[in-house]
Amino acid sequence: MRSVLLAVIVLISATLHAQVEVGEFGKGINVTGKNESFSMNLGFRFQTLMTTDWTVNNDDFGQIDGFTPNLLIRRSRIKMKGHVYSPKLTYKVELALSDRDIAVGDEPLLDTRIVLDAVFKWNFYKNFSLWGGQTKLPGNRERVVSSANMQLVDRSILNSRFNIDRDLGLQLRNHNTLGGVVIKEMFAISKGEGRNIRAANLGGLEYTGRVEILPFGNFSSKGDYVGSSIKREKKPKLALGFTYDLNERAVKNRGNMGSFVRDAQGNFHGKNVYTFFADMMFKYQGWSLMAEYADRWTNGNNPLIYSGDVVIGTIFTGKALNVQAGYMFKNNVEVAARYAGVDTPDVVKGDQQEYRIGVSKYFVGHKLKVQTDIGYLENRLKDDGLTYRLQFEIHF
């Protein structure tokens, strides 16, 4: 992998008379073209994860069995970003390399899932920017926070059930400051089936709108989208966010996520799926608090999808709450805890509650860290689960 990356950099430098600069750890490799006609920041990161799972039979800690250890490369990513022609024309590309990132299973409509982000951004007027390509939709805060910047080993059950992830389309973004209050507006129109779908549009389009309010101004180093209080804000900082998403005639059981819904003849069936998020991030002198609420429903509030009189699928509807908080000590060790709960209609059968506590050691912020946590997953209709996780992350 290193030899490939170095070969790419050498080729760019030789053919385009670019300037290559290797900065401090965690800042990547910077390439600048002649007369600054283009730039590229190239970075690489990976996470090595060890997990151990147990089954708690009949909700009784005296009946724990099913010891299941695992070790895997949880994520492995290459990221490129920079500008072309003008500083107002920027781009971002992120590629996934781990098996878990790119596996497609038996789904014939999916391309190899190597491309996470491939997006072009044009700052065309003042604070207005137009984005085009595949990237994260302006959904719940926890999902938009990079997997490199998480407070605990991984995201919550709210995120895994309700997030709207990435899609291919257009986004319009703006931000303003009024009397010290920062206001951000985001609107997206996307394909509606999620990332790396090679088929033409199967249902309707997806429409996403989000508004964010930062009443005390911006966080240090964009900390409203960074887990943990890495920068130890000297003054209280608060971010509030609200998202509304409509996926018309969605043909997946979680909007643009999950599995496709087909009848026996292979025809796609769907219905409108609506999702609402409200979230917040607060940081002050080593303390951090993030909370999220999610609500998903369908037209008619009936999650069942029919082909004639036959039920062929169920939209994952319901509500969820996630709250997590932590304190960063001066030696850059953080203790954090999370509670998350998912409440679904009886026909969905997805009720869960998650309890988790973790400890992290940050050597160079999120660029070099060790994280560990232990969690209990309470299931309504099956045995509960107990999990221990240990993860190492390095980001060049």
UniProtKB/TrEMBL annotation:
It comes from the Bacteria. Pfam families: Porin_O_P. Residues 1-18 form the signal peptide. Keywords: Signal. This is Phosphate-selective porin O and P. It comes from Lishizhenia tianjinensis.
